[in-house]
Amino acid sequence: MNQDEPDGDLTFENAVQKYVIQSMFGFQVVLWFGLGRKIGIFDYLLTKAKKTSENRETAITFTPEELSRELTLDTNYLEGWLQMGLVTGIFIHDKKHNYVLKTAPYIFELLIDTTSRFYAGEYLGLFYTMAHSQEKILSNFKTGKINKHQSIPKENRITEHKLSARLGKKHIQLFTENYQMQSKILHEGGYLLEVGCGFGFNLQNWARAYPKARIVGIDIDPEAVEESKKKVSEEKEEKRITIQFTDLKSHVKHNKGKYIVILLHHVLHEMEQSEKNRQQVFKYLHQLLSEKGVLIVGEPMIPELDVEKQPHFDLILHKWYEIGFGSKFYDKKSFRELVQDSSFSRVTFIQAPLPQRRYFWALEK
Ligand SMILES: C[S@@+](CC[C@H](N)C(=O)[O-])C[C@H]1O[C@@H](n2cnc3c(N)ncnc32)[C@H](O)[C@@H]1O
Prior knowledge:
Distance between the termini: 59 Å
Largest sheet: 7 strands, mixed
Bound molecules: S-adenosylmethionine
Structural class: alpha/beta
């Protein structure tokens, strides 16, 4: 391309900025953040911010010596890391004191405070681990070989579940607004089942929103089930929340017609791929619902490769992250086809007003 001739609206300089400079910075921020998180720097800064709560949203100050001393870090490595933090603008110099650094504005909410709703550390942390799996993707690209979900390190599975639970939390209000009768029954002690509750983050959010509902979570991942059980006992909720290591088929045997609400959140795409198997899943779910029951299916609707549609980054990211684990996703049309022969009386795509992108499928018994 001639440097002086813009291609559409994109000039050569813009292209360099967009495809080269931003990518280089972005990739380094991912590596830099993932590493800093693993060696405990961000936890340290968070603890420090809590102790000196004044003004913590705008800046946390620290010195290189302090980090090296408190976290036992090599000073050469640390210096390189800190300089990368400075060049990316995440840290800045404290003008008043030599050798004192501080976090740039908004960094506290974005990268340090794990409880902030703007915290992006889970995503960046996950990207960091994706960098390590490139060799595997490379070797499987031509063969199509897939790995089991459970081969993903536990730490990463926890991160994934935290992220899906963040999306799941946004469904609660949407559910409450659209299914007032079922919501009332839950408030009065009705039964809720989460199939594929994983490490229990999504289940915990629903349990908090419905403090009287009786809740059951099932999953086929033994490690996740153990962690979920631990959470329930830490919160002293054993009386109303039960977590079971079991599959759907076994659970149906003794629980037909029991649940007013069932959640299938970010699970369907991970289930065994055959359509026949997945149709069977919907049959079981139908049997588990009580007369007025509703099944809430939270699934990213990912369009096929289609020139008409511009793919959304976060949807495609989800697909790209999970291709190597055999996940299979739906778009709106193929989802309807999947459930069309199930016995549900109504299948509705419930969506929050645009530009929000919160949605779920509601399947009424
Ligand atoms: C991405 S996680 C979602 C966890 C949780 N629902 C959430 O939204 O945070 C998917 C979970 O589904 C579970 N799962 C996959 N297939 C399952 C099946 N056939 N029966 C029960 N759980 C299943 C996995 O073990 C994993 O814990």
